[in-house]
Amino acid sequence: MIANVRTVSCKPGKTPAALAFAKQMAAFLKDGYQIDCEVLTPIGGNPQRIAWSTRYADLAAMESFVNKLTADPKYWELVNGAAECFIPGTTHDSIWKTL
């Protein structure tokens, strides 16, 4: 099983809007792609961060999903609509193998 975790930092004062977007994106992935996506916030460290966590059977399944998602204009509409909520350059993806 492969776990992907994407984190991003929110601009000051934008956390409520960023959380609304995060939940909207999770619902979009569930409704449109049947991908379960958890929205996470940190307990320690910088509190102005959000993470999404998704899981896939293997890297090929993850790659297939990412290719479909990045070709979807609705995905880009959602992402671009929330751009003002996040600090540019702070998006970080981590790919993990579950044991």
Q: What portion of residues is helical?
A: 40-55%
Given helix and strand content, the structural type is alpha+beta
Question: In DSSP terms, counting alpha (H) and pi (I) runs of 4 or more, how many helices?
Answer: 3
Shape: globular
* Unreliable stretches: none
Task: Give, in spatial order, the strands making up the sheet with the most strands.
Answer: 2-3-1-4
Cα end-to-end separation: 8 Å
Largest sheet: 4 strands, antiparallel
- What's the gyration radius in Å? 13 Å
Q: What is the overall pLDDT average?
A: 96
Indicate the proportion of strand residues.
25-35%
Order of helices and strands: EHEEHHE
What is the number of strand segments? 4
Task: Please give a quick description of this structure.
The protein is α+β, with helices and mostly antiparallel strands. The protein is built from three helices and four strands.
Keywords summarizing the entry:
four-stranded antiparallel β-sheet, globular, 3 helices, 99 residues, 40% helix, alpha+beta, 4 strands
Q: What would your notes on this structure say?
A:
By secondary structure, this protein is of the alpha+beta class. Helix content is 40%, strand content 26%. It has 3 helices and 4 strands; from the N terminus they run βαββααβ. The chain has helices spanning 15-33, 59-70, 73-81; strands spanning 2-9, 37-40, 49-56, 92-97. It has a 4-stranded antiparallel beta sheet with strand order 2-3-1-4. A hairpin with an 8-residue loop joins strand 2 and strand 3.
